[in-house]
Amino acid sequence: MEGTTASEMEDPLSILCRQKQIALLRSLMGEPSHPTYPSVFIYGHAATGKTLVVSTLLKTLALPHAFVNCIECQTTRQLLDRILDRVANHEPSPENNYCSLNRCENMNTFVRLLKKTTEDRGIQNQTVYIVLDKAERLRNMDGNILPAFLNLSQLSGCNVCVLLLSQIVWEKFLFGFGSNHVEPFIIHFPDYTKGELLEIIATDCPEGYSVEFYSSYVNLLMSIFYMVCRDLNEIRHLAQLNFPKYVEPITKGEASEKDSHKLWRNIEPHLKKALQTVYLREVTSEQWEKFQRAETGQPGQQTSQPGILSARAQMELPFYSKYLLIAAYLASYNPARYDRRFFSKNHGKVKKSAVNRKKETSHQLLGPRAFPLDRLMAIFYSIVDSRVAPTANIFSQISSLVTLQLLAQVGHEDQLDTPKYKCTVSLEFIRSIARTVGFDVIRYLYDFVK
Amino acid sequence: MPKRRRESEFGLSTLEKVQQTLRRRVCRIEIPPKEIIEENLKEQRQHLVDLISRCAIRGEGNSALVTGPHGSGKTMLVSSVLSEIEANPRVSKNLLIVRLNGLLQTDDKIAIEEITRQLRLDNVVGDKVFGSFAENLAFLLEALKSGSDSAQSILFVLEEFDLFAYHKNQTLLYNLFDICQSAQTPIAVVGITRRLDVVELLEKRVKSRFSHRHIHVFNSLTFPAYKEACQRMLTLPSAVGDAKFVKRWNQSIETLCSNSTVHDVLKKAHQLDKSICGLQSLLLLPICRVSDDHPEIQPVDLLESSKHLAADSKAAMLHGISVLQLSLVIGMKHLTELNDGDPFNFEMVYNEYLKFVQRKAHVVQCFEKPVVLKAFEHLVALEIVKAVDGHGSRTQKEYRAMSLLVTPAQLMDVLNTHPGCPSELKHWASNPLPS
Description:
Shape of chain A: flat
Number of strands of chain B: 7
Largest sheet of chain B: 5 strands, parallel
Strand content of chain B: 5-15%
Domain Origin recognition complex subunit 5 C-terminal (chain A): 317-445
GO cellular component, one term (chain A): nuclear origin of replication recognition complex
Helix content of chain A: 40-55%
Subcellular location (chain A): Nucleus
CATH architecture of the largest domain in chain B: 3-Layer(aba) Sandwich
Oligomer: heterodimer
GO molecular function (chain A): ATP binding; DNA replication origin binding
Domain Orc1-like AAA ATPase (chain A): 16-162
Distance between the termini of chain A: 53 Å
């Protein structure tokens, strides 16, 4: 969607693989003067051409329309003002001080102003299209907004059609309060098949290479990524990003365009690495390109990975904070009744009850449990070797761990008396922390010891 | 563009007009003629006409509620009555109509502004400040009196009446019903609502002032009547022009309606939904499809339209997810069944996925945890999986309790149609792994 702007594609029929949907929409729209169905709901996955098809259709047919993205509109007023501006062809600019034409606080005024605006522009006979992109956001606005939009043509008496675009199915739009809505006409934009994806991506073949060559490359790329990702934007982006690497043997003269096997062997490990890094946005695309260039400079040297963000597991903390965090982790993931066994010097006999043990699911799966402050402090004192005074410093470190979101406070925040906490860091993270202070966490974790 | 081409061809204007006429019917703009409404809703209609004309002529205050399910023709009934009232000069000269809608007038302040506007009293009210809502309303009604010696009757039509009951203290409703009851300006209040229990929403003092006159409108169309309504909706009036064409069209509609495929389609639609609204959305596509190359409605059009309406949207969305996400959904299905519907979290799903992948390593590639997490988050964004405790919870995303919003039947359907779904995955979906 972002890859091709509407200006590139003048004729809506040139949009690939969406002929059926375009024909359906066109027949629903009819001629400009025809009455239309009050609302149309269009859904489909990301990058299935919802926005592209609708906006190109409206632009090429030169129909009066207002295209609004609901994410941009935090409040009802912003949304309604923007729609009215677009219908009136008014663009906020420095000349008009970025003001909108009207000041519209609620749906009642909106309906009145909409009628006035269309009359002012002399388009009261034509269908006005209001397109609301990312319409799932409308559910978070006032309860009357969505039902009112669905039946706008009847409420306002104008010839208006509201198009809602969303990734979420219509059933999830049915609201709690009342059922005062009209069912829209629902259109599904199906996902592209593998062949269609190939056909579309083949259109941005770089100069100097044949289309067949590029599509065979995209085919290879898809064999790695298609299992994980069927998003056109994502695959297209990855194809553009990794193409220089793919043709590297050709530019160096080691292989020709026909040597598909050699090219494949060259690119495969590279693409697998891309799946773990660029796809997850741990490396920015720019860094990745730089990395590719550096690698071509010194072939065979793969150690110079760029500064990967997955250094998530590194954090500098004060000494006692580290121990507090470790203690919190142990308190979160160990059942309280085993504290004696792990932390007391002379614990009693460990009774083995085979019946009970079988049923328990590992806490590593269930997640952290809440623990009271006393337990945290008890474990903390037993794992810190030196004697630590319970100063204000220690307690303020606990609360700063909470603000760093390494711990989470459970229950009411204003509870000063025996607050409860949860540890919200991963095992990886706590192990790397423990390594820096020379503490073996695994030995103290119930799940691993039992 | 086909638009330009059509201009020059023969029969263009007729088809244009056909579209114009038929679209007005299915897009709920036109009110059907009086006779059609009288056929089914004769009593209700008479009741409303009486009530309003008595208010206009004799000055009786009155209130009534029109209730009925979605698409049963409440608004249509009221608008048809209103158009008749307006046509009658004896009544209309003495009656002002104020139309309010619960979706637009969301609080009493907006409502009173709207009333002022519709009574054209903006200049009279000006910048006056009123102490209370009742005072404001009384002033409005008083202002109407001052023009002539006798008081004007006012008809209030409140659409989405149940939403007015959510206003603070129900001030608007209280005042309107109060005026109805006391001998002030003669007003009639007609509420339109879908809720049968709307009276229970009213406060005691409001309820006691309401006249408890209910006008029920139900979808009571039998199948033959439904079929006839369908035919009538498609039949053209002779006013469209080109009598020959209209005759041919109406004949084709007649043969269409006697077709057995059409009969089946209509039967199915009738079993699902008796309302005229359902019929309208069924006929929308066939009517829109009518063009030069396709001048008549075929039975196939109706069949296609009914298929379009019956499509399962959730299955359609599941069809578009990747194989990795599909295997996660299968894992979640097993977890839900294993724990008797208890919520699960990402770690459990990942564990389940690993168990599967390790057994059938050659089928599904084993992906790293972050890649799987991304796939999982995408499922959450599509609302195929939903967090049990909302977004406010402070646990890590891996441990947030989730529940699956897809039924096993839907999942199995999708597995059979999903492109490139390995058969091992299908097998896993029907047979959970031994733990």
